[in-house]
Amino acid sequence: MSRSCTPGLKRLGSKSVAYAAVVQRPVHAYRRPGRHAFARFGLKNVNGITTVFGVVGKVVGRLCQPTWYHVQLPIRPNGVTGYVRAADLWVTKVRTRIEVDVSARRLTFFRSGRPVVRATIAVGTSATPTPIGRFYVNQELIPTDASGPFGPGAIGISAFSNVLTGWTQGGPVAIHGTNEPSLIGRAISNGCIRLQNTVLRRIFSATSTGTPVVVHP
């Protein structure tokens, strides 16, 4: 029996499963499928890490196959999305999710919709606040000095500081460790989310690129 489907845009993702799109060749992102290209991405980002997008939807054609993916993009302004040709991406499921409550100074790490890690965090100051919104993990970085300000690792997310626009790479935001553990629980960062190093190591090893990151006020 032949399948039938309704062509058009379909939303993807839930609280238990999300989707990540890995770039297979240099791509353009479009405002609408095939129209108004506004951004270009190579196979790797400025840090030499494979380019990944968070997937929020797919455009299905008459043959019931995706022709375009609607994706989150790791560029300014925060929250920008675009359409990328399905043929240029490899899409995979992600079963992890991170939620950050800025006012409560709490991070919760979920696997398959279930909370498995809860931790106290440090967040941005009132002058350099942690951005609020829906983002995704786009890279994981290991510092050369684990005793430095980022601790043993940094989980880069697709958010940028709303005020530090002149910083290197535009002021990207990350979830990372610390060399000042006594400051955890306070609003003292430049917008990044700091964890105790023991917690950071646990989350770092379990987090896949494409993991949704939801930051609540």
Average residue-wise pLDDT: 95
What's the Cα radius of gyration? 18 Å
Tertiary shape: globular
Q: Which band does the percent of strand residues land in?
A: over 45%
Order of helices and strands: EEEEEEEEEEEEEEEEEHE
Task: Explain what you see.
- The protein is mainly β.
- The protein is built from one helix and 18 strands.
- The strands form four sheets. Strands 11-10-9-18-13-14-15-17 form an eight-stranded mixed beta sheet.
- Strand 6 and strand 7 form a beta hairpin.
- The longest helix has 10 residues.
- The radius of gyration is 18 Å and the shape is globular.
- The mean pLDDT is 95.
Q: Which short descriptors sum up this protein?
A:
mainly beta, 217 residues, eight-stranded mixed beta sheet, six-stranded antiparallel beta sheet, globular, 1 helix, 18 strands
Summarize the structure.
The protein has one helix spanning 197-206; strands spanning 8-11, 18-23, 27-32, 35-41, 52-60, 66-72, 81-85, 89-94, 96-101, 106-111, 114-120, 123-124, 133-141, 154-160, 172-176, 187-189, 193-194, 212-216. With 217 residues, it is mostly beta strands. The N and C termini lie far apart (50 Å).
